[in-house]
Design brief:
The protein is mostly helical. Helix content is 45%, strand content 10%. It is built from six helices and three strands; from the N terminus they run ααβαβαβαα. InterPro entries: Cobalamin-bd_sf.
Length: 153
Amino acid sequence: MWNLVFLQLLLEEHGGEVHNLGACVPDQVIIDECRKVRPDVLVLSTVNGHGHIDGLRLIKKIRSEPDLKDLRVVIGGKLGVRGAENVKFIQGLADGGFDGVFESEGGLRNFQEFLGLGGRPAPRALPRPQPAVPVPGMAEATEDASRLAEAIA
């Protein structure tokens, strides 16, 4: 699974700090953000099947920037629209400059190994639950909804 929210939760669960730029981010915005944040790794998620095209275009731009040429960059997800044949794009993307390329089928485990995320994250203390705060008018609204449900039934 390579959707952005899942990847963010996975990385944060293992102690990573994530700057999720969202979907369909223009190349220059990604480059500018990498300069500003200086991430340990840039993770690109592709779910639309254009990863082999969009990813190759972006990695060429990143590798041409002197201050970003050594940035670790990986891509994963749906690299193409050919199902099992998408694996043929892996070598081209790696040759194009990606440090890691992960096809959606089985790629998540390889991605975790690449980043050194072994097994389950260490448990951490959860914050104490806060008491519920009454919402003004909620009791009346609940009673009105109950009466309406009874009238319909």
